[in-house]
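Table S2 (text version). Query chain:
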Amino acid sequence: MPDTALLVSDHVAGSVSVLAVPDGTVTARLTGRHLSEHAGFLALPGGRVACVDDRRGELLVLDPFGDELVERALPVAVPAEHLACDPTGRRLAVTTGLGKNTVPWSDLVTVVDLATGESSRARTRADEPGVTVLGGGDPLVVLRHRTPGALAAHRFADLLAAPPGCPPAPPHALLPLPDDGHGDAHEPCTGRVFAATAAGVHTARRDGDTLRAGPVIPWESPARGWYLRLDTRRPALWTTLRGGSPDPLRWQEWTNQAWRHDLTTGRTSLIDLGPGLVFRLALARGHTAFTRIHPDGDELVLLDTDHAVRRVPLPAMDGAPKAGGTPWEGVERRAVAASPGSDLVAVTRGGHGEVHLVDARSGQEATRVRLSTPLHHGGHLMLIGRTDGAVGDPVGR
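Corresponding structure-token output:
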């Protein structure tokens, strides 16, 4: 069995495939499983992966390197919004969000102890909450709420001990935030938690059973980030700063900058990525990868450790976003994934059922895999190694 595997989820068609890397051979496949693209994949110790089946309402623990792909399935509330674990990978939390609805309607959060198999649900408040799980003798589940914005700390043990009937669970502590929070990260070695807002990245750290606010990290740009990711290779935060008109019909004019904040030195770097739709990113061994969608042509953008930019053209997608339409509804997109233990980057071609494996060092395509489902909306990916260090980021991606 190879030491690196690629998980490919077609959440529309309801399938999950595991591919051996680098040759792209399918080694396992699940059908009838509609994974939450928003909650994403979460790396667990031992090369295992957690995700949520939004149709069945189950937290799945997958072992892409084992004889049986599904190691465990535990009930959780859905639609899953965000997924996170404590630094040990034992205690998980799943929040609920919009799903196919236009306004927040569910206030349920689920906690799971993988060591005992216990799980419990409680009510917090209807929202689209982000989540992190801070470690310690009594882990804290920290929910990032909007309108009104706040970081709400709940004792994991209290949530797990909630009686049947999904009772209300008031937070143990609250820190105010602006109402436009979107994007969460957690640095296990320091216990710091980060939340992105228009004002910058708000920081906090655990102080006993409560949270203490830290300084706000500025964007150093008129744009803002909507997504945060912890770099497990070198202590840093990454995101894409999106600027320009907020009108989604003018998405092709949006500006995009790669934003990196070094958590050791406190220095921030900004690198231009070009106009169009850029969102999530992936962290390979020596590169950071972004996909950029634009009517003039799509590309994979690779930044090396010196922030030198390499642009790799990608084949066009039928049904790609067009000028004058939105980049979200009824269009195809791309997913991107990488492993901090590999130089390969995986990119999907939504609607075509294709995954491109690109060597970030050369910018050349190493393998192209065609799957049996179309990967509408781009699907979702995770490139995982048995011991690649991805578990250092305890937030689902």
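Notes on Table S2: The chain has a mean pLDDT of 97. The helical segments are 156-160.
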